[in-house]
Write a structure and sequence with these properties.
The chain contains nine helices and 20 strands. Strand 16 and strand 17 form a beta hairpin. 36% of the residues are buried. It binds adenosine-5'-diphosphate (ADP) and magnesium ion.
């Protein structure tokens, strides 16, 4: 690869206003060369706007976009060396697979003699070798999405932008494609910025995840960090399956949930109002085998939901507060679950005891 292809992408203090609406509010992110970064947030949080600013489809009201040392804020999309994949595949239905994939080569006026080799390579990458002459209408949804991906990669852009590319696919195919895309990224090393509103998808695929809310960047972090050290209650509730419970400060590394003192491995936030964020799978049923330093809570089972691969158990603490935990669906784990109404002791490791500002 040449030096140009090794550049990262930066967005600096970018804002976008539509009249009185602030769609994006002073967002800065550095995407490292070769990184897979996801933009995660609820609908309307500014993900597509941010992607559009990177791609050149949206002009920022203020701020700038850089590829390495080059300011591309005002460069048109076709001069940015960026491949795009959208939710709706945006393939040309009247063209063959090969013509679709060759389209960016034509648009970039690359020598025609090079097209067929590049198209064949791009199709091979997405495991559609030999599909050049198929019609788009003959392909399944997953195959169409792969053609769209091949088309985005065929000119070897330094950056690929994807806006919810898998959201039109059914769950099983979506999960397969997530794993394939992740592997493809590892193999190619292209920088990818990927928009999704699905936290599980973001955690599965990304090197880092940027969480957006109301046009603001809330936290940019690795999946593990986002999950273990959410910056605030929004991130904690958006990532995973957390119950948020009001707690009171009880020393430097401890909080009180009702009458029970819970120790945490982390410094507490400075804010006055604190919430304990308990992910369902971090609470474990204590059959006398929990580690000595674990926090313990006494509860009573209120409901058990069978959900296939796992079970969700709801349990009420002494003051009536309900927590929920997950147990694997195997028989040994299921036998630990008391019947509804029976007492239950649950353990929570200090490293899983996450306290965030309310
Ligand atoms: N062209 C536009 N004109 C006016 N408002 C827009 C336009 N594009 C987006 N918005 C608004 O900007 C906010 C962010 O939108 P968007 O970036 O599409 O969010 P997301 O992709 O996270 O769902 C939303 O409130 C949306 O309605
Ligand atoms: Mg969007």
């Amino acid at each position: 690869m040449d030096a140009r292809a090794k550049a990262g992408v930066s967005i600096r203090s970018a804002s976008k206003r539509y009249g009185p609406l602030i769609a994006l509010d002073d967002v800065s992110i550095d995407v490292a060369q070769g990184e897979f970064l996801s933009l995660l947030g609820p609908s309307g949080s500014g993900k597509t706007t941010l992607l559009g600013i990177l791609g050149g489809f949206v002009q920022p009201s203020s701020g700038s976009v850089w590829v390495g040392e080059r300011d591309i804020t005002f460069a048109p999309p076709h001069k940015r060396d960026i491949g795009m994949v959208f939710q709706s595949y945006a393939l040309f239905p009247h063209m063959t697979v090969g013509e679709n994939v060759a389209f960016p080569l034509r648009a970039r006026r690359q020598p025609k003699a090079s097209w067929s080799g590049k198209v064949a390579d791009a199709l091979a990458m997405v495991e559609l070798r030999g599909y050049e002459h198929r019609r788009i209408s003959e392909l399944s949804g997953g195959q169409r999405q792969r053609v769209a991906l091949a088309r985005a990669m065929v000119f070897e852009p330094q950056l690929i932008l994807m806006d919810e590319p898998l959201s039109a696919l059914d769950k099983q195919l979506r999960e397969t494609m997530q794993i394939e895309l992740r592997r493809l990224h590892r193999r190619l090393g292209t920088t990818i910025v990927y928009v999704t509103h699905d936290q599980r998808e973001a955690l599965t695929m990304s090197d880092r995840v940027a969480v957006l809310k109301d046009g603001r960047l809330v936290q940019v972090d690795t999946p593990e960090h986002l999950y273990d050290r959410p910056r605030n209650s929004f991130v904690a509730s958006f990532i995973g399956e957390a119950t948020l419970l009001p707690v009171a400060r009880a020393g430097e590394n401890a909080v009180k949930l009702g009458d029970t003192v819970l120790r945490t491995a982390y410094p507490l936030p400075r804010e006055d109002r604190l919430l304990l964020a308990v992910q369902t799978e971090k609470l474990v049923i204590d059959a006398g085998d929990a580690p000595g330093d674990a926090n313990r809570l006494s509860a009573r089972v209120t409901e058990v939901l069978y959900q296939g691969e796992s079970l969700r158990v709801f349990a009420a603490l002494a003051d009536g507060t309900v927590v929920s935990l997950r147990q694997p669906g195997n028989h040994a784990a299921r036998q630990r679950i008391p019947l509804p109404g029976a007492p239950l002791s649950v353990a929570l490791s200090p490293r899983d005891t996450i306290v965030v500002a309310a």
